[in-house]
Specification:
The chain has 8 helices and 8 strands, in the order ααααααβββββββααβ. Helix 2 runs antiparallel to helix 3, helix 4 packs antiparallel against helix 5 and helix 7 packs antiparallel against helix 8. It is of the alpha+beta class. The protein has 2 domains: 187 residues, no CATH class; 77 residues. The N terminus is likely disordered. The longest helix has 33 residues. The two termini are 30 Å apart.
Length: 298
Amino acid sequence: MILFALLMSLTARADCPSVASAQSLSDAIIAAEQSYGSMDIAAFNANVRLVRQNLRCIKVPVRAVDAAGVHRVIGLEAYVAQRQNDVISSFRAALAASPQTKLPEEIAPKGHLLREMFDRARRIPPQPQQPTRIPPGALMMVDGQASTSRPIDRPAVIQLMQDSPQVGLAMLWSGVIVSGNQPPAWSNVGYAAPPPAGSVPPSSTPRRNTSTSTAVQRRGPRTPMLVAAGVSALAAGSLYAIALHGKSKYTDAANASINSDKDLDRLRQQTNTLAYTSMGLGLTAAGLGAAAYLQVRW
């Protein structure tokens, strides 16, 4: 379900003829400002639409400098429409996204009303932002920066994304939210909650045999287990041979090396220990040999 939702978010929508890039967005911003500077209003309006389309269709995080450019262009659009309050709000947003942003001289020469509005926007102090709930595995970008809050007194470039091991970082929604409006609900842009930590996806869940009996299947021999079985058998044989030698010494009353009852008792204990150890290794070798040929499936 998560993979399907994220893949759907990567698919170009009907209003996105192609996937936009950071470069195409930057180029559209430059074209819009140039057409405004040449007072070609028809070309300017077309380029403003192109800026909005690139922002809507971009699948990577917007850079702060480009977020500022988007706000500048929208501010110029508001100026053409004679919406002075919107002009100042957009210029405030541009300065908040990138404090170094400037209006080119050919757009707003010294003494021009547009220049005065830009300077007025610079003098307005930033206002507190509204905390925003970010669901697990999601990310919200505000004017090119990851954030858990957003401005409510000015426009902002908002991007909603989700990070998934299957797809990576997927863009769910991208656009400008003006003052007084809310970003779209996460559930409306394709967000899918990740599975609980530690859970196993259904596709990778091992299949269990519902039978109450254990099914034993014969497989080809597994070399590591055969090697271990051989080593164990060899060690068992060696220890058993040493034990037999100890037993023969113990039972040989004429053995000149046995000088006392204490020595006889020590030899008996050593012989028994070696015998028991060789038996244990023999059983281990037998078990490993069987395991090399058989696999138990539950």
